[in-house]
Amino acid sequence: MPRFEGEVLEVREYGQGRLFRVAVDSLAAQPGQFAHLLCGEDSPRTLRRPFSIMDCSDGSLGLLVKVVGEGTAWLAGRRVGDRLDMLAPLGRGFNLELYERPLLVAGGTGLAPLHFLAKRLEAAKGHSPRLLWGLSCGEDFGAMPAWLERDIDLSIATCDGSAGMEGTVIDLLGSELARADYDGVFACGPEAMLDALGPLIRKHALPCQVSVEQRMACGIGVCFGCAVKKSGEEQSYLRVCLEGPVFDYSDLAWGGDGPGGA
Amino acid sequence: MDSRLAVELAGIRLRNPVMVCSGTFGSGSEYGDFLDLESLGALVTKSVTLNPRAGNPPPRIWETPSGMLNSIGLENKGVERFIQEDLAHLSALELPVIASVAGSSVEEYVEVAGRLSDSGRASALELNVSCPNVKRGGVEFGLESQAACELVTRVKERCGVPIFVKLSPLVPDMGAMARLLQEAGADGLSLINTVPGMAVDIEGKKPRLGAVTGGLSGPAIHPIAVRSVWTARQQVGIPIIGMGGITDWRSALELIVAGANAVAVGTANFTDPQATIKIIGGMESFVQARGLDRIGELVGSLRV
Ligand SMILES: Cc1cc2nc3c(=O)[nH]c(=O)nc-3n(C[C@H](O)[C@H](O)[C@H](O)COP(=O)(O)OP(=O)(O)OC[C@H]3O[C@@H](n4cnc5c(N)ncnc54)[C@H](O)[C@@H]3O)c2cc1C
Ligand SMILES: Cc1cc2nc3c(=O)[nH]c(=O)nc-3n(C[C@H](O)[C@H](O)[C@H](O)COP(=O)(O)O)c2cc1C
Ligand code: FES
What we know:
The complex is a heterodimer of chains A (262) and B (304). With 262 residues, chain A is α/β, with parallel strands linked by helices.
């Protein structure tokens, strides 16, 4: 049954981010899949909150949470020994088989599924793929960039130039694609970043798998609440929780107010 | 299962009075990963229309204090695929299935209801004449008693299964509407659908929902549901399925004491996929503790 209460084993604070390790019995999650968390105890918020799974190994699950509102603020207050009620793993993850030489592109907490993916690809191929990570400022995630640099093949872009390259992760992607030969892109981040990815991947004729966000209720495909716009046809939608959150970039309607419509 | 919880609704026997609301349980089997579907009283499926519908533009959800707004817009695969793919599946279960019907004309309701009835796979039908999220279809039949009664008469002529009518809490005179529907031959009422609502992004000066307005559900609307059930119960003897904001056995029993013969759980399934099971357990303990012979003794037991 994909529902359980997991005990928080570890909480690490990285600037605006909290990295949780939660105990799970035998859970087989794929990079790109998510966990749907109840936020609040005695009278929980009506809707669960979705978070990408950042790691799943040795009986524990990793989640990277950035505080943006009430639910994430509640989560940030959890301590070792507290229990989290979650449905997981949900959704369709990345297809690891499609590209020989993939490039990974993350913005903000979009790092979570791509870090998981990088580790899985490393295990499969014997070397870590390159991951580009965009932050608004080097301090956003505290010591996490320094830790990750030792862990995976990471390049950072910050808007204020305080760490890595000064500029957006899209600028970084542009120079990386000009420099080296890739045959596919995995991406996750804010919708504006994903939208800006379009011209570059089209220019280099690269296929791309992208993990997108949408507000969710059920998380398992029953309510049709998490619709995003499909490309091609007017008024045609896909469910992020069931058909996604990972989609082929070209299956979604970019431009305008984006696939999520917000 | 405690037989004291068993109820009968329009000739359909339910092992307990706890059902799930249309649109909050998919086509039925998805929640099978989280609970034993056969422990529910009955299952109401997502409203279907004659042809597939794409639904409304996103975003379709917004969380509100003690509730949520949705503007799904009746996205569904159309009645034929629903019968083939979903009802076929569900009818294999030991579980009464009530199929919800929507449409934008009397003809469409009659056609969809007729096909579902002919399939032999639905124990009853629920006419959704109260969806706030579609321009045509629904509310114009549901708010005006003459149109609603004509619809019921026409559907009853065509169908061989019991017909429940699902109403909006915005019905101007709930008591009169309930009485007229009973006279028109409705076998039962489902009360209530979501309450029309709206939320605004004050920074962007934009509506939160792609469809601008939506329907409010969850604990926030529970008192409205209790009042609707109570008002209708004073006028009719036909079964009432009470719904709106149920989160636990207490909020479920409130509707029963106010006059509902059964209850349906909606939004709470999203918060807790096992909500229905916990509610059934709570009712069992209550019936036991009060020494009731059957839960039916509580229906409409309100003393005013
Ligand atoms: C598939 C998926 C994976 C995600 N992975 C991560 C992750 O790894 N780390 C992380 O920090 N965040 C992630 N998010 C975003 C995260 O779900 C939101 O930040 C969170 O729901 C905000 O909740 P809140 O109560 O703090 O904010 P509020 O703004 O108070 O939330 C109000 C409502 O809007 C919803 N909501 C608000 N922002 C988002 C959003 N961006 N996406 C979906 N729903 C939203 C909430 O769930 C809630 O229902 C992911 C979202 C999705 C869909
Ligand atoms: C996401 C969502 C979808 C819904 N879809 C339908 C529907 O297709 N047909 C219908 O009659 N009611 C629909 N409803 C209304 C519910 O069946 C129910 O009447 C309402 O939500 C009140 O109950 P609740 O507060 O327990 O959710 C929907 C409600 C929600 C939240
Ligand atoms: S959140 Fe309910 S269908 Fe995706």
